[in-house]
Every structure is written in C-alpha cells, then in structure tokens.
C-alpha cells in the first residue's frame, strides 16, 4: 500500500485526535476514511474503486462501438429467426 507523509500544523492535531476518538479510530485511519469517502462521492472514481476491470471493459466497448462494422446479410437474420421460432415451437410441444 502506498504511504504518504503529511506535515500538519501542530494546532490541527488536538482536533484530529478528538474526531478520531469519536469514531473509535486513529487519526491516520480517520484521514484515510475521509479520503475514501471523498473518492466515492466523485462519480468518475466510483467504478474504479469497486472494480478496476469495469473501466477496462467500458473502454474496450467504447472503442469497439466506433466500428468498423460488418454488414449482416439479410438471409442470416431470417435463418436465425427461423431457428429461434422452431425452438419455441419445440418447447411448447413438450409442455
């Protein structure tokens, strides 16, 4: 986990310590919770925190949405529809 060193004014520490005690935690953990809370409020970070692969998938889908697109022959659509309807008929015949 990355570490960060903060130089806070000495006058901040009593307040920070009191706030941390109210939440039964340390001053360090108190600051971490506030940073994470702020990130969750930022809509662009929400997905990345939850699952970084979602962002990768979204980027991939956006790229593919730009094309190029391959035209689908009309008879292919008809063949797929015929097969689908045949399966529906078979299911209803067995019920």
Explain this structure.
- This protein has helices at residues 12-22, 27-41, 43-50, 52-64, 74-94.
- With 95 residues, it is mainly alpha-helical.
- It is built from five helices and no strands.
- Helix 1 packs across helix 2 and helix 3 (43-50) packs across helix 4 (52-64).
- Helix content is 72%, strand content 0%.
- The model has no long low-confidence stretch (mean pLDDT 84).
Q: How many E strands?
A: 0
Which term fits the overall shape? Answer: elongated
Average pLDDT = 84
The CA-CA distance between the termini, in Å, is: 58 Å
Secondary structure category:
mainly alpha
Rg measurement, Å: 28 Å
Characterize the main sheet: none
Share of helical residues: over 70%
Query: What order do the SSEs take from the amino end to the carboxyl end, as H and E?
Result: HHHHH
Percentage of β-strand residues: under 5%
Q: What's the tally of helices?
A: 5
pLDDT under 50 segments (min length 5)?
none
